[in-house]
TrEMBL record:
Domain Retrovirus-related Pol polyprotein from transposon TNT 1-94-like beta-barrel, residue spans: 4-68
Entries under InterPro entries matching the protein: PolX-like_BBD (IPR054722)
Protein name per Swiss-Prot or TrEMBL: Retrovirus-related Pol polyprotein from transposon TNT 1-94-like beta-barrel domain-containing protein
Organism: Phytophthora sojae (strain P6497)
Domain of life, per lineage: Eukaryota
A Pfam family that the UniProt record links to this protein: Pol_BBD
């Protein structure tokens, strides 16, 4: 089970686990993070999230999810 942090102020979806992505393609995106440092995304793809709220389960597909090992 992967844990995700929801950030409504984020500019991009970021993921540190390459195995969660599908439809992966090369990407080169430099991202400025909260501490003013920069990280580089090397790939992007889609990710399927399984969300549970109470007893209700839903699947949500995120697109344009960038893979960044350093997050």
């Amino acid at each position: 089970t992967a844990e995700w942090i929801l950030d409504s102020g984020a500019t991009h979806h970021l993921c540190t686990d390459r195995n969660l992505l599908f439809g992966v393609e090369p990407a080169k995106l430099t991202i400025k993070v909260a501490n003013s440092k920069t990280i580089v995304a090397s790939l992007k793809g889609s990710c399927l999230l399984q969300i549970t709220v109470g007893v209700i389960k839903r699947s949500i597909q995120l697109t344009n999810v960038y893979y960044c090992e350093q997050v």
